[in-house]
Design a protein that fits this description.
By secondary structure, this protein is an all-alpha fold. The protein contains 3 helices and 2 strands.
Length: 151
């Protein structure tokens, strides 16, 4: 166990001091889990403030619960900030990758247009050669009438 305390002690700390545990399911007997960062923040906060608050208002329990929640909130804000930083970095990386991909697509489009132009030019060259061959063949071949006689 992370806190090196018994189940009943941890349950009391949860109930009375706002120990940051998260229930899986509903009800007081459902299983719990906790994040080490939240527990560490709670321990630091609770150990320093519990003594001060106990001196100010008797036992300090209600105020310590509130301060435990504040510490928990701070941990959540830190996590949120970290996640936002990660999201911003991921967005920047994605933007760079998108830019590279768009450049590659544009380059591919240019190369395809050049190949198409080359193929069109080759086709025109081949058509011209076919016309020459047809003309040459037509000049060498005698023309026949319907009955197969030469005029």
């Amino acid at each position: 166990m992370y806190l090196d305390r018994g189940v009943r002690t941890v349950q009391r700390w949860e109930r009375e001091l706002g120990l940051p545990v998260h229930r899986i399911g509903r009800g007081p007997r459902s299983p719990v889990h906790a994040f080490p960062e939240e527990l560490q923040a709670w321990l630091v906060q609770a150990s320093t403030e519990h003594d001060e608050l106990a001196a100010m208002n008797g036992d300090g329990r209600a105020s310590t619960r509130l301060n435990g929640q504040v510490a928990n909130s701070r941990v959540l804000v830190q996590r949120s900030s970290r996640l936002m930083e990660e999201a911003v970095q991921a967005t920047l990386v994605q933007r760079q990758r998108t830019k590279k991909l768009l450049n590659a697509i544009e380059d591919l489009g240019r190369r395809m247009r050049l190949q198409l132009e080359d193929q069109k030019a080759n086709l025109e060259t081949m058509r011209a050669q076919v016309r020459k061959v047809k003309t040459s063949v037509a000049l060498r071949t005698p023309v026949h009438d319907h009955d197969g006689h030469q005029p």
